[in-house]
User: Which sequence fits this backbone?
């Protein structure tokens, strides 16, 4: 795996983590503390996975980093769209659910990496 590929994967993970935290703040500012707690838990899980993967990537992983970065980029685009929808309309529970599902999908992708 090249240094550029490692950087790309970690960049996408950092983007996902940032979006999760942005969602959390949006919910906190809207007084939706139950939602904010759910997002805080997802963000913490994403950070743990990001840190784990960073250590592993730098040591041993030889998988297809380009494909992983592309997949994460696509999921980050979806997450960004859900974040913006939620920011615009906090009352729609479905938008929140979709955003959480995007985070869960990213976490599922990360769990598949040895």
Assistant:
């Amino acid at each position: 795996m090249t240094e550029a590929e490692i950087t790309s994967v970690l960049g996408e993970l950092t983007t996902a983590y940032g979006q999760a935290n942005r969602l959390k703040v949006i919910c906190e500012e809207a007084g939706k503390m139950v939602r904010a707690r759910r997002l805080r838990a997802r963000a913490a899980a994403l950070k743990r996975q990001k840190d784990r993967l960073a250590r592993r990537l730098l040591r041993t992983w030889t998988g297809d980093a380009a494909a992983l970065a592309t997949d994460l980029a696509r999921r980050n685009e979806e997450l960004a769209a859900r974040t913006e929808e939620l920011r615009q309309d906090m009352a729609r529970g479905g938008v929140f659910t979709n955003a959480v599902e995007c985070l869960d999908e990213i976490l599922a992708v990360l769990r598949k990496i040895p």
In short: The chain has a mean pLDDT of 84. Residues 3-111 form one domain. Residues 3-29 form the longest helix (27 residues).
